[in-house]
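Quick question: who can interpret this fold?

. . .
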Amino acid sequence: MLEEGTGTDLEGTLAAMLGTSLPQKIIELHQTARDFADEVLIPAADLHDREESFPADNVERLAKLGFMGILAPSQYGGLDLGNLALTVVLEEINRGCASTGVTLSVHNSLLSSPILHFGSQEQHARYFPRLASGEALGAYAITEPDHGSDAAAIETTCRREGDEWVLNGTKAWITNGSYADIIVTFATMDPSLRSRGISAFVIEKSMPGFSVGKKEKKLGIRGSDTVQLIFDEMRVPAQNLLGEEGQGFKIAMHTLDGGRIGIASQAIGIAQACLDEMVDFSETHEMFGRKLADNQLVSHKIAELATRLDAARLLTRRAAIMKDAGLSHSGEASMAKLNASEVANDAARMALEVLGGAGIGRQSSVERLFRDAKITEIYEGTSQIQSLVISRHVRSVRG
């Protein structure tokens, strides 16, 4: 994996984005993920959605494939392959099952990544062996019941008492929350300080004062575990402070840039699944005596979606390459997420239009994909937040 600040081979960037010169390890990883999606995830995706059951069996098998440690250092059992590899894998896993895909994405991009970039060597040695092997599952907790997009306004508090920090507050909409063993969370020493008062912590579910609150009932991604986390005088050892005191907001924003690349990858996987459904259905069904695929309106939808999907894929891989190279990528990550999530939702709508009545029943995978797609425009920063980030990025570049 390229280290922070080393730059990148710009001549090879486009080829890597296109997938024509991906490192052999990533090519092999991609094929493994594709096979896993086809053979394991797709057959079970509707069941996990229908039963709203966490795909623990899928996660266990992902761990055996090494996918829980894509970003983890090799010295602790990880693959150490970086964000481009993670992006390629997430596209395929989410094509098969978005509930499994977001579980994998959060574990790598929102939990492993901040520990990797801001954690101490002691924290690396303590956590990465368990994270890379899949023994421990990760989560990221910043959203609160009354604070989502405005991360600087969090109300969960922290105070130092000797060799411990004491946290009080509630986190909401936390993916993997019930099953996570290790969680990166954020608390403020004084809400009036906003971003300047926030610190980051690596917490464990065994810590005194930690509990899991209500489970959310959701429109889509129903197999993914989403809950409230409650901190009631939770005692956190001082060595579990992530980075420096007051550095939490910086850590949160840096981490969310990577998380947005992960959700862009999820959206691409969902859009690809929709395109596959459209093509398969149009090739095997007829209207007015000819295949739907020969209908000009249908063929134009397929062409439009395929073109937009490749464009979204290129934007997302560009952001991943820049992150791996240690380059500023906040604007590019937001562009990737905004574009990919829009493509995913348009893809789901197009697929429903092509399948018609065959697509709206609960027996149809397209019905699930339509519901799953919507969340990609909301979590890791809404589309409106992405537009703000992109606008600021454009203005800063021009300035």
In short: Residues 1-8 have pLDDT under 50 and may be disordered.
